[in-house]
Task: structure prediction
Amino acid sequence: MLHENQLIKATAFGSPRGVHGVTHRVSVYLNARRLAKDKELMFYMNFAFFHDCCRRNDEVDPGHGSRAATHYIMKCTEYDREINCDLMAAISFHSSHNVLQFPKRVLICWDADALDLPRVNIKINSDLLYTDEAKEINDQSLHNNTSE
Ligand SMILES: [Fe+2]
Ligand SMILES: [Fe+2]
Result:
């Protein structure tokens, strides 16, 4: 994983103001912190900043997860930092449906990303979230929005 200053430099390209730009990255990080109860902050910060950094557009972009994982590996090598396998899996597979079993911290990354979907007017189906914590946050949010 990279340190904060390395991370910012390593992912500072693409479309910073787009729907997958800096605001989204920070939101994903804050969502993950909430889901993980402030544990493993650098793991989630690395996911948040890497996962969409190699998008070629803000629409459907198959392969952007695996491109980002490759970029993550290249940057860890460049900065002489250890490659974290869970982080690599979280980045690589975040954009594809899969049936494999992954550790909870990987699932937290994906739920943190999904919880930011309302920014593009997508209502989240809790059945598609992985963790009970994210389902609870989403159900509460849907309840609050319908009772206003
Ligand atoms: Fe993505
Ligand atoms: Fe994302």
